[in-house]
Design goal:
heterotetramer; A alpha+beta (about 80); B alpha/beta (about 230); C alpha+beta (about 750); A: about 80 residues; alpha+beta; two-stranded antiparallel ribbon; 3 strands; B: about 230 residues; 9-stranded mixed sheet; two-stranded antiparallel sheet; 11 strands; binds adenosine-5'-diphosphate; binds magnesium ion
Chain lengths: ~80, ~230, ~750, ~80
């Protein structure tokens, strides 16, 4: 899960936030649009999380403007 | 008297003036803008949703524009059989609004692509292609990031079977990876037509080609017949 | 207010001095600030001074030098000093243009850096009331074989595309060079051209005591405050640090609306002045507007709409949040202004008033938080003299390019290598990512002709005429000889315009150099500006604006000295702008002749071929400007008269590469004999084929027309060198022959760049 | 969480999958790139989830090409 960092302009989130009231949803606030990257890696949960964090740091996210959070989704089927 | 064509202007529109110029350069047509906040079409005989990046294309191309106030009137106009043309971003809006089948996805290259392409007219059963020859080839530019037309297989078959594919990229020139080389589709009745190529950027030899006039010319003839 | 008596050099509290130094001020500058204020600056004032007195805003090391540039001419409507230059293009219209760098931000975050670079240069152009119609980009990267270069290139081009395409302004041209000295410090320069009604040009001087200062556009966040965060009153935690992003994010949708809004305000004559917010945000835009108008301003930062809670006044003053403009409005027009802004969904907030006291006073609600004399901020920054010294070895500072071609390569092998080399190969990979059509003005697209050609059409005024635009600069050649290299850059730009029949109207430039405090960089900069001045005088082209970007250095040293030149010219008949490519359609009847026009004296010094051989040596051959200028005029007239079917100036890779491009792009071959050139110039074969230098244009056209042209062109140099025909390019020179099929020329030329990127 | 539907070509996911081995991660498979939209809405968890699902159906996702999943993140502070 990759999100625009706090304090960084999020034009996408703003656009969605401004569009929702027109559809009748006028109590929605703090909309942020980020990216969701899902992948399968082998290994136990601890090492997988560490490796994916490393991938985020190096490729998947842009640490200058994005923050990331890695969630393990359990073993692949 | 010229037929009136409304050119819808969303915030973030880019090619609305180009559409206006193209329409006004077509004998028998006269264009005026329809701002996104309008609730009626001001007597337009046909509507164009032009290219650009409505609402920045944030979220998904065309997704937010589809809810602009003017779209209610456009949808109603389309349901009543009025001619509606969506070019590029306009095509995306029409798909998002459910007026056209399928959806537009990010190009296979993931990149914006701006180039002249050749498309063949597959169906002349729309007000925008009625003056073309079946199979006629047109040289027009494309310029988009999100132009890969897609429909689930069953829907795609239906669309083909009903003759709703209006334009296809010539062999080996598909710029975005669209399904079955589709460049433009119409609704079942043929009155709503969306295409990725920018016909409005092909109306003057000086700036590239005049093949886009085949589409605008068809519309002019169609409108003069129905309004006569 | 502090009452400490200022005794320069002694009385400063150590905390203040260290803060000032952390902000980049010298001790002597801090002393001067204290003297000008008559006291010590508070934190906000220190922040404002440090930014306004930075190299970026004050041109401390370049201002004196820039005075050498000729800036006047009969067509000049606005010269340097305004947000962008403007020249008269007839029919009541003005062409407005400027080039600006965004090098450092792009090296840090290439996508957003390049995107916001485009956003910034657009604002400079619509700040004078012009509708932006074209963007050109000039990019420099390291060797394309490194992952860093590929990453920077991909992301920079994507960023320019994302912003330019989405804001709806055509990106119609540009240039890209790859050289090792740019590896760490890439260059991203963007030029914008706009059109305005002459009688609607707006200036940035704030005028009219009592008038309102209205902030337009995006909300203000903590963007770009990073460096000044030493001033934050609270202790910074890691998390807080994150809240001061050093990377600014562009929002082209906001800019698209801002453009329409500002242009409507200008068109309806509702505003007295307009100014973009660029580097140093409100601090610099307000003080410069006040300075130009000779007035003072009272600002209330509490009125500034914020994106972030808890911002301090100094943060609001120096924030570099994008997509904001400032305008001056008479109170009675405020309601009209606000209603137009509402129509474009653009935020508009009165944040201050024009005063007659010559001071920039900053309030936070009722409390005064800063009070500075405007002249002190804008005019009193000390200017430094450069200390230029010519280095013994001009190229020592730069790593040698990697040799990829042997010293004894055969001509045919050399041509293949050149045509597919990173610097010569087609830029299609990049320009296809740009919308070069929006606006319906593009008569000549990228790669169709030597300059981009845009129909002159604005606000209901249609003309038969067109603007031609080009942007050029070759850092390697400037490194070899800063004076001659810069002259060549100006000539190249002018040659590109001539090839489409355009007469240059004005020039803009961006001086990208290393640290000017180093004597050899100071020398490069000085010689480059002198060269630019000479070339502009010879061509009779005024400099109407520009930008300076110094301290471009990586850990391995400075970049090549890189003056980038942008020119705008006028084409009388848009239909008569030939392409660069040979035309095969007359083949069979009487094929077109090929001629070389101009006093072209090719030499291998500093050439692309030498680069491929890994052996660049200092020095460029000197040349006379006058015959070059005359030759360009002859080409221009021939193009305007419709005598030539193609025109392409000889540049990177020399004559052989130039001819191969004409063939690859035209899809038709040519039979060429270079003996006439070898004899005229008494040069060897390799120099004739691959030598570079100014003053050569390859034209093709019908036999009779070229023969007629030869009479007029004789005095500037005219050599008939061949015929357009056949399935291959055959070049004979002395004993050597090169043969390259049209198909292979096309493949080498078009796959050169993408092949390196995958 | 909005994901490209299965069976639809996901060039973004593919691009990531192709880039990872070059960084030394060669056991990563099935990469998919979607969108993460976070927003604050008032109401109890059940109604909020239902409303956000409706927003997805109407605006946030395109059901023809995307699937969505709504997760409640607990009451706002
Ligand atoms: N190399 C140069 N040649 C001519 N004029 C220059 C040059 N560099 C800067 N200028 C002029 O100095 C003024 C300030 O430039 P700059 O700080 O880039 O302006 P802005 O803040 O509007 O972007 C401008 O009018 C610009 O045209
Ligand atoms: Mg400016």
């Amino acid at each position: 899960m990759i999100r625009p960092k706090e304090g960084i302009l999020d034009p996408q989130g703003q656009a969605v936030e401004r569009a929702l009231p027109a559809l009748g949803y006028d109590d929605v606030a703090h909309v942020h649009v980020g990216r969701l990257i899902e992948l399968e890696v082998g290994g136990d949960e601890r090492t997988v999380t560490a490796r994916v964090e490393e991938m985020c740091e190096r490729l998947l996210a842009n640490p200058l403007i994005e923050s990331y959070e890695v969630q393990a989704a359990g073993a692949a089927p | 008297m010229s037929a009136r064509v409304g050119v819808v202007v969303f915030p973030g529109a880019c090619d609305e003036e180009d559409a206006l110029i193209a329409v006004n350069g077509t004998p028998g047509l006269e264009a005026r803008y329809l701002p996104h906040g309008e609730r009626d079409l001001k007597g337009a005989d046909a509507v164009i949703l032009p290219g650009g990046f409505s609402y920045g294309d944030y979220l998904r191309a065309g997704a937010i524009a589809r809810f602009a106030p003017v779209m209610e009137a456009v949808i109603e106009f389309a349901r009543e059989g009025g001619p509606v043309l969506g070019i590029c971003n306009g095509f995306q809006v029409l798909c998002e609004a459910g007026l056209l089948p399928g959806a537009l996805l990010v190009n296979e290259s993931l990149k914006f692509v701006c180039r002249q392409v050749v498309v063949a007219v597959d169906s002349t059963a729309t007000p925008f292609t009625s003056g073309c020859e079946p199979g006629e080839q047109l040289s027009v530019p494309v310029k988009h990031t999100t132009g890969r037309w897609f429909a689930p297989p069953k829907l795609a078959d239906q669309v083909e079977a009903a003759g709703q594919v209006v334009l296809r990229y010539a062999a080996d020139t598909n710029p975005n990876g669209s399904l079955r080389d589709v460049a433009g589709v119409a609704n079942e009745d043929g009155n709503v037509f969306g295409l990725m190529p920018h016909a409005e950027h092909a109306v003057d030899e000086l700036t590239g080609s005049t093949d886009g006039l085949r589409l605008f010319g068809s519309l002019a003839r169609h409108l003069s017949a129905v309004t006569a | 207010m502090s009452e400490v008596a200022v005794n320069p050099g002694s009385g400063l509290p150590p905390g203040l001095l260290s803060q000032a130094e952390a902000l980049g001020l010298k001790r002597s500058e801090l002393d001067l600030i204290c003297e000008l204020l008559g006291r010590e600056p508070n934190q906000l004032e220190l922040a404002v001074f440090s930014l306004l007195w930075s190299e970026h805003c004050a041109y401390k090391h370049s201002k004196k030098l820039l005075r050498k540039l000729p800036t006047e001419g009969p067509r000049v409507l606005m010269g340097p000093g305004e947000n962008a230059g403007a020249v008269d293009v007839g029919d009541g219209l003005a062409a407005v243009f400027k080039v600006e760098s965004h090098n450092h931000p792009s090296a840090v975050e290439p996508f957003q850096g390049a995107a916001t670079g485009v956003g910034g240069i657009l604002r400079d152009v619509f700040a004078v009331g012009a509708r932006p119609i074209a963007v050109l980009d000039s990019l420099r990267f390291g060797d394309p074989d490194t992952p860093r270069t590929r990453y920077l290139l991909e992301r920079v081009v994507a960023g320019i595309a994302a912003y330019g395409n989405s804001v709806g302004v055509a990106t119609v041209g540009g240039e890209i060079y790859f050289e090792p000295p740019y590896e760490q410090n890439c260059l991203v320069n963007a030029m914008c051209v706009g059109l305005a009604r002459k009688d609607r040009l707006v200036r940035s001087a704030a005028t009219g005591v009592g008038n309102l200062i209205v902030l337009l556009g995006a909300r203000t966040g903590r963007d770009g405050i990073g460096g000044a965060s030493v001033l934050a009153s609270a202790e910074l935690s890691e998390a807080d640090h994150d809240k001061r992003p050093s990377v600014q994010i562009g929002d082209p949708l906001e800019e698209n609306k801002l453009i329409e809004c500002c242009l409507q305000l200008v068109d309806q004559e509702l505003i007295a002045a307009l100014q973009d917010l660029g580097a140093a945000g409100l601090a610099s835009s307000t003080s410069e507007m006040a300075s130009k108008g000779g007035v003072g301003l009272d600002l209330d930062v509490s009125k500034v709409p914020r994106r972030e809670p808890g911002m301090e006044p100094f943060e609001v003053m120096i924030s570099e949040s994008q997509e904001r403009m400032l305008c001056v409005v008479e109170p009675k027009r405020l309601d009209d202004v606000l209603s137009i802004c509402a129509r474009w969904e653009t935020r508009a907030t009165p944040i201050g008033t024009v005063t007659d006291n010559g001071r920039l006073r900053v309030f936070d609600g009722g409390e005064e938080v800063g009070d500075m004399p405007v002249p002190a901020l804008v005019d009193e920054c000390p200017l430094y003299d450069l200390e230029p010294a010519e280095p013994a070895d001009r190229l020592r500072a730069f790593a040698d390019p990697r040799a990829v071609l042997g010293h004894d390569s055969e001509p045919e092998e050399s041509l293949r290598a050149l045509l597919s080399s990173a610097n010569v190969a087609s830029r299609r990979w990049a320009f296809e990512q740009y919308d070069f059509l929006v606006g319906s003005r593009t008569v000549r697209r990228p790669e169709q002709a030597d300059a981009s050609v845009l129909r002159l059409m604005h606000a209901g005024i249609e003309t038969e005429r067109a603007l031609a635009i080009s942007i050029d600069g070759n850092g390697r050649r400037v490194a070899c000889d800063p004076y001659i290299g810069t002259i060549e850059a100006v000539c190249e730009c002018a040659a590109n315009l001539s090839c489409v029949g355009a007469e240059p109207l004005g020039l803009t430039n961006c001086l990208n150099f290393g640290n000017p405090e180093k004597p050899h960089v100071a020398w490069q900069l000085t010689r480059a500006v002198e060269g630019m001045a000479s070339a502009c005088r010879a061509l009779d082209v005024p400099v109407v604006g520009g930008n300076v970007s110094l301290y471009n250095e990586g850990p391995e040293g400075p970049i090549y000295p890189t003056p980038i030149v942008g020119m705008v010219g006028e084409v009388p008949d848009a239909r008569r702008s030939p392409s660069s490519a040979f035309n095969g359609s007359r083949e069979g009847s009487r094929p077109d002749l090929v001629a070389l026009i101009g006093p072209f004296r090719p030499a291998l010094a500093g050439s692309e071929l030498e680069k491929l051989r890994g052996s660049v040596v200092p020095g460029l051959p000197p040349f006379d400007l006058r015959p070059v200028v005359e030759a360009l005029a002859v080409v221009r007239e021939a193009v305007r008269a419709g005598e030539v079917a193609s025109a392409h100036d000889v540049s990177d890779g020399g004559l052989a590469a130039c001819l191969a491009e004409c063939v690859a792009l035209g899809g038709v071959g040519a039979e060429i004999d270079l003996d006439p050139l070898v004899h005229r110039e008494r040069i060897d074969l390799e120099a004739a084929l691959f030598g570079e230098g100014p003053g050569g244009v390859v034209v093709s056209g019908p036999r009779e027309a070229l023969l007629a042209l030869s009479n007029r062109a004789h005095r500037v140099g005219f050599l008939a060198i061949g015929t357009v025909r056949g399935p291959e390019l055959r070049i004979a020179a002395g004993a050597a022959t090169i043969a390259l099929s049209v198909e292979e020329a096309g493949r080498l030329f078009h796959s050169g760049l993408p092949a390196r990127l995958s």
